[in-house]
Structures are given as structure tokens and as C-alpha cells.
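Teaching note: in complex prediction, the entire set of molecules is handled at once rather than each chain in isolation. The prompt given to students was simply: 'Predict the structure of this complex.' The entities are:
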Amino acid sequence: MNTTLINFEAFIEWDTNPFILFSNLGKILYLNNAAEILFGYVSQKELYNIALSYATQDFGYRSTTLSLTYDSFTFHSITVGYESEDQISLRLYNTPRIASSHKLETNKLITTDINILLEANIALFKTKNTNPLSLLVDQDLPAFKIDQNNFSKLLRKVLNTFRSSDSIDITLKLLIGQHVMIEGKKEPLVQLIVLANGRYADTDDEIRTLANISQIKCLLSEKSIRMEVPLIQ
Amino acid sequence: METFFTTSDKIHHIIKSFNLTKTLFVSSIIIGEAHTGKKTLARYLFPDAFVVSGEDQDAVQDALEKHDELIISDFEKLSNPSQLNFDNKRIIATANYLGNASLIDDIFAFIYMMPTLKERPDDVEYLKELYVEEACNTLMIDKDKVTMSALPLNLSLNSKSLKKSLYLDLFKLAIDKKEIEDIMYNYLYASLEGKDAYKIHLGLYERPLIQAGLDKFGSQLQLSQVLGINRNTLRKKIHEHNID
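The expected output is the structure of the full assembly:
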């Protein structure tokens, strides 16, 4: 039988799912592009420990379904494999971004300075709460098209989940290098992060619904809410 | 043009938020007890907005078709608020109570709660000054003769009860003997009947007389001398009129 040797390294290198090869001491022997970005948000030790925890008892490969979230990265399963005592590999599978079921009618959207909407919602929040609140915004963000009413409702609900938090940090910035397709057009993203020492999760479903209407990707975690808002111009 | 005075932090935040969203097409509602200044605040912030009452659903529907900026007062009185389409409109609604909370939450982006006057002592002082000034002008009373601290404040119905109670108190100061007699005349003319009217209506004169005398002179002995009646007669009348 004729065998052809194929080098699969480039395929792995450019795969959007992170792949890491550790030494038996937990040192990184190889990591692909996606893993390199992921390491900006998770420690080497944490991923190495995951690889060890989910490895088979003997040499071989095992895939496990689990839910992992690091910043805006979410994974639905992993594969851990090793063929010798010297190396162990970990592959994480990205959770697919669910396409919004709501069609955005961009012609009905109004060009808006998002900073104004944010400030107005903070003023509303302050009518009911006295929590210390810090705001870091990119004043150079251009005005963009948004459903002002729906986005305001979303902001109100998001801030309201932090009503009992000790201090709240809000950051608004352009998400460099990431885009979203809206009506066949590649649009940049603005990231809004609200972070505190904890928050209520009672209205998370409503937040997801409102975010979906405006095609905003929303990541709700125990202490923070991250929103990726399409910057439509 | 309407003016709006307040020292309340809460209301200052409401004003700030409204000022920021003044040019945006968002729906807002101010909810709070009656007579706390919700409508005045809305008209002060949006002087050019068309004003319509929620008492008439058809009128609101009609106004929504014609105007992009609208103040809807008495929102709680709308028969079918979920039918209204606020898309890309600037709506400022006012309501005396929350009503259907989830509906309000669905319709409005900005939901403000207006504090009552009891929560705004500085605003009460300002309004008191304003109403006393106005009442003194209307009733032609010399304001310098009014002891401001002696005027009781009735805040049970916010500015409505405050204004009414101040007017009534100042009116009592303005009234003279002849006017008291006229009021008595009108009252007695309307109520005189039966066989024992003299005794029944004598209290109108005796009760305030004895009460004022006791408040002024303290002792029954002294009052009986001032009134020129026997102390026993005075005691009998105090008992008769249930005066403490």
C-alpha cells in the first residue's frame, strides 16, 4: 500500500479552534494562532490542569463535552490526547456564534452618539442607586446607527443587575480586529463592559432578548456583562 | 414658559438624563404620586411638545400620528397602552402609579420615579414661600404680618394639599368680624330648622369662644372673670361642648 506523508501543521495553525501542545512539565511546546489569542485571557497553568484532568488513563484521545468561558471566548467541548509521557495536547472547540433570529432593519436606525445614551442611563441609574460608578469611554467613537429605544432599555436592564454592587466599572471601546456581518456588510464592533463584584441575574433572559433584537452579542457572567455592539454607519 | 425648582438630587438626575436624551427618539415615563410636579417637569423640559391626556386613547393615537414629540399625561388612564407604537418617537409620559409593571417595562426605555414632597423638604420650603406670596397677593394680606413658621404644612396630597392648607390658613388671617358674621349668616340660613335650633347652633359661638379663652388665659378661674360669667357656668359649658 502506498502511503503519502502529509504535514497537517498548517491546518492546525490556522484552525479557529485553539490547539496547545504541552510538555510533561506544563511548558508550551506548540500553540496555534487561536490559542495565542486565548492566552491573553487564561493562564497556561489553568489550561494545562484542564488537559491533565480530562486525559484518558492510558495513552489515547478523549473528547469531553463541557462549557468553558474565558472573556468573550466560549467553548463547548475539548479533546485531550497523548501518545507518550512527554507531550499532551489540548484542543478547545469554539461554541458557534448563534445567528440573531431578529432581522435588523438598518434603514430604521438612527445615528446616535452612544456616549450620550450611556450617560443618560447612568443618570437614570443614579436616581435609584448610590453605588460608586466609574466610566471609561472612548470619546473618539464615531456616532453610529442604533435603535435608540431598544438599546436604552437594554442598558437600563444591564445596569439594574448591578443595583447592589459595591462599585461598578463601565468601559466602552472599539473592539479592534473583530467584525460582524450585518445585511451582508462587514461592520466593526464596539465593546461595552460593565464589571462589579457581583450582580443579579434575575433579568438575564430579558437582556438576551433585547440584545438579540439589536444584534448585540451579550456575554453574561457572574460579575460582568459584556456586549459587542455592531458599529453600523 | 414653565419653570421648575428643585434641590432634590433625585430630580436633578432625572433632569440630567432628560437633557441628555432631549434630541433622541426614546420613550420615557415619570411615575409618582399626584401633585409632585411630574407634568410641570415634562413641560419645563419639553416646552414645545404637544400635550395629550391618557384619559382619551383615541386622542393619544391621533397625536402619535401627527407628532414626533409628545407628552402623555395620566398614562395610567389609557385603556389599551400596548396598542400604541412609540417607534422612533420622543415620548414623555407621566403616571400617578406604576400599574402594569411589566407593560411599562416593555414600552419605556427610561422609567423615572418622582419623589414625593415629603422626601423633598427643601422643595416644600420653596413652594411654601411661593404659595404664601401668591395667597397674600390674592387675599390682599400684608406678608410681613404672616408668621411663616406658624403655618402648618399639609403634605398628604403633595402640592395640592400644601397649597390648599396654606390658602385656608391665610384666609383665616384675612377675615374680619363682618365677614365672620356673613359666613355665620349663610351657614345658619341654610341650616336653621326644627324646634331646638337655638341650643343646637349656640355651639358655633360658644365652642371657639371658650377654646380660644382657655388657650389664651390658661385657667378656668381667670377665663370666667374675663368672660364675666360664673365659674360653675363655665365648667358646665366646657363639659357640654366636650372641650378638654
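Point out the following to students. Helices of chain A lie at 9-13, 33-38, 44-53, 114-128, 148-160, 204-213. The interface with chain B takes residues 108, 110, 112, 116-117, 119-121, 123-124, 126-128, 148-150, 152-153, 156 of chain A (CB under 8 Å).
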